[in-house]
């Protein structure tokens, strides 16, 4: 066991549109964050799971969900205003753990990641120090010109959609976060790229969708059924 997982869960789920964090919404009867945490915990290489949460949600994780948090050995951390702040809290918690070679950052909002995809992205990161799951873009992509008055087609043959886990050698991620000062980034691969480290793409599965809008939960329910077949 030599992988530490950071499972950022400190968002609010604004686009999901409920009055509580979307991660408490139920997927086949269980909260989204719990389904995600169980999948990571089940992987033989995962040694630790650090889950950054918001101050607002802490009473629920320490009350209603305390037994699940304990049973999975989840370490709660203090998330921040931006996802990057939440991940940084996780990195700080894992820093200095000599038993950990890789650190895997996985959105708690991606509950359906497959074990075979975890194997693949961990193995790639073993060799390269930086690897992420991603899927090829299947849509025809247009760039808007003149505020939509016209458009042009972007060649999609080299375009991929980034997923998580995003997996790095611990020292690589620590260096990326040590250098990071404010300039926003939407994922950790971007921060690692900024220190000049090449990030490998590992073809993943569309099963590993992120729950962003309510429709995504309907799709996830359907995918979950096919995974059990
Ligand atoms: N996240 C986090 N800390 C933040 C923002 C997001 O830990 N300050 C986490 C979310 O809880 C989620 C993951 O990062 O598991 C991916 O973020 P996203 O899907 O954007 O979730 P939210 O930020 O909660 O949703 P929204 O952007 O619609 O508000
Ligand atoms: Mg967000």
From TrEMBL:
Annotated catalysed reactions: 2-C-methyl-D-erythritol 4-phosphate + CTP + H(+) = 4-CDP-2-C-methyl-D-erythritol + diphosphate
One of the GO biological process terms: isopentenyl diphosphate biosynthetic process, methylerythritol 4-phosphate pathway
Superkingdom of the source species: Bacteria
EC number(s) given by UniProt: 2.7.7.60
Site (Transition state stabilizer): residue numbering on this chain: 15, 22
Keyword Transferase part of the UniProt annotation: yes
Alphabetized UniProt keyword annotations: Isoprene biosynthesis, Nucleotidyltransferase, Transferase
An annotated Gene Ontology molecular function: 2-C-methyl-D-erythritol 4-phosphate cytidylyltransferase activity
CDD domains from the UniProt entry: CDP-ME_synthetase
Broadest EC class assigned to this enzyme: transferase
Feature type site, description Positions MEP for the nucleophilic attack: 156, 210
UniProt family annotation: Belongs to the IspD/TarI cytidylyltransferase family. IspD subfamily.
Function: Catalyzes the formation of 4-diphosphocytidyl-2-C-methyl-D-erythritol from CTP and 2-C-methyl-D-erythritol 4-phosphate (MEP).
Name of the featured protein: 2-C-methyl-D-erythritol 4-phosphate cytidylyltransferase
Designated gene of the protein: ispD
């Amino acid at each position: 066991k030599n992988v530490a997982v950071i499972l950022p869960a400190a968002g609010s789920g604004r686009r999901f549109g409920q009055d509580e964090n979307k991660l408490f919404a139920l997927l086949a009867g269980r909260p989204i964050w719990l389904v995600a945490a169980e999948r990571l915990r089940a992987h033989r290489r995962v040694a630790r799971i650090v889950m950054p949460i918001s101050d607002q949600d802490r009473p629920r994780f320490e009350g209603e969900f305390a037994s699940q948090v304990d049973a999975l050995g989840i370490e709660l951390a203090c998330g921040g205003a931006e996802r990057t702040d939440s991940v940084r809290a996780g990195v700080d918690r894992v820093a200095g753990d000599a038993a950990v070679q890789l650190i895997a950052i996985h959105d708690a909002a991606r509950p359906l990641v497959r074990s075979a995809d975890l194997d693949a992205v961990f193995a790639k990161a073993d060799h390269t120090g930086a690897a992420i799951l991603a899927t090829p873009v299947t849509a025809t992509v247009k760039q808007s010109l003149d505020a939509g008055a016209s458009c042009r087609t972007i060649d999609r043959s080299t375009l991929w959609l980034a997923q998580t886990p995003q997996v790095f050698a611990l020292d690589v991620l620590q260096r990326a976060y040590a250098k990071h000062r404010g300039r926003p980034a939407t994922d950790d691969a971007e921060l690692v790229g900024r220190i000049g480290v090449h990030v490998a793409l590992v073809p993943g599965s569309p099963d590993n969708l992120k729950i962003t809008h309510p429709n995504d939960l309907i799709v996830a329910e359907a995918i979950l059924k096919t995974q059990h077949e």
